[in-house]
């Protein structure tokens, strides 16, 4: 019989909790480590739709990338959205486990999965910890040189579709080969990407001012900005493969099919709107 504790042991070997940032909240959120597990759902966000999916499948454990709680709470009353999720999971005897920044930094981790989805061969971390490839982000190389426009199309085809799609900034004819990626919010690593000498940097949640300041220097990498959820979703398959191997196929592992990106509607200026003046 496989237990919640057995699944956690496999996950924490792959994504050591000591790699998590000090502010992070990783590990078992709710559930009994001694409970048996026959089915696991892996997702990015522990939200209502993924809990619906897990309970519909009869999963006894939900493995999520994003934590349910990042700030201290004084209760899990069903009067709050997050409290309701905990209550639903507990009533269904389903546990919740989160692997966040420890999965970001692990080798392989979130950015390795993103790099693989884009067809990159990883050569090292973007911001390493001094221990092999452990660290945030990855630097990789394409199989051959292609234009920036072609690369942007590659990104769009490789990641799950979202309402906002893929945004990019750079010369469409620029030739690219060396690429930096960072799953999740990555504008804190713009300088690291520049210092790495890459041709393009792929990440999520790029903000206006940091991106504009970065692009003001023509020698810096072109930018590709994708949805936060989409940039991390390839990790789900990585975690699923780790669990299938570590549990010898004795547990059914399902990757969530629910799109939990919070943005659901988009309008393209110039096509559906008008420029001022």
3D architecture notes:
The protein has two domains: 4-103 and 232-255, 3-Layer(aba) Sandwich (Udp-n-acetylmuramoylalanyl-d-glutamate--2,6- Diaminopimelate Ligase, Chain: A, domain 1), CATH 3.40.1390.30; 107-226, Udp-n-acetylmuramoylalanyl-d-glutamate--2,6- Diaminopimelate Ligase, Chain: A, domain 1 (3-Layer(aba) Sandwich). It contains ten helices and eleven strands. It has helices spanning 4-14, 48-57, 81-91, 101-105, 110-117, 148-158, 190-195, 208-215, 228-232, 234-246; strands at 27-30, 39-43, 61-64, 95-98, 121-128, 135-147, 167-169, 175-185, 200-204, 222-226, 252-255. A six-stranded mixed β-sheet has the order 5-6-8-9-10-7. Helix 1 (4-14) crosses helix 10 and helix 5 (110-117) crosses helix 10. The radius of gyration is 20 Å and the shape is globular. The chain starts with a helix and ends in a 22-residue tail after the last strand. The model has no long low-confidence stretch (mean pLDDT 95).
Write the layout of secondary structure elements.
Blueprint: H1 4-14, E1 27-30, E2 39-43, H2 48-57, E3 61-64, H3 81-91, E4 95-98, H4 101-105, H5 110-117, E5 121-128, E6 135-147, H6 148-158, E7 167-169, E8 175-185, H7 190-195, E9 200-204, H8 208-215, E10 222-226, H9 228-232, H10 234-246, E11 252-255
Parallel strand pairs: 2-3, 2-11, 3-4, 8-9, 9-10
Antiparallel strand pairs: 1-4, 5-6, 6-8, 7-10
Helix pairs in contact: 1-10, 5-10
